[in-house]
Amino acid sequence: MKIEYGSPNFLYSNRVNMRSVISVQVLKSQLKFERSYVTNGHRRFVLAPSYEENVRTISGILQQTLQRVFDDGSFLSFIS
Fold first, then answer.
1. Which end of the chain is more exposed for a tag (fewer CB within 10 A), N or C?
2. Would you say 3 and 40 are in contact if contact means Cβ atoms under 8 Å apart?
3. Around Cβ 75, how many Cβ atoms within 10 Å?
4. Residues 58, 6: contact at Cβ < 8 Å?
5. Rounded to whole angstroms, how far apart are CA atoms 12 and 55?
6. Taking the model in full, what pTM does it have?
């Protein structure tokens, strides 16, 4: 799993760019399932975000990426 969270390289920016990548590798007998799931996003803040806002923002993009994994029919078929 990889999470990137940061603002553009400007003196001041109210935009935060986010990227979440989850790589899934499953072995089942002699078969292998391997795929990466990616979610990109951004969020704008009027003021610098608090710790709690950062946690909610990061949790949100991670949840979206996990949802992609479990919405993937080929992954669900493989693990069943």
1. C
2. no
3. 17
4. no
5. 21
6. 0.80
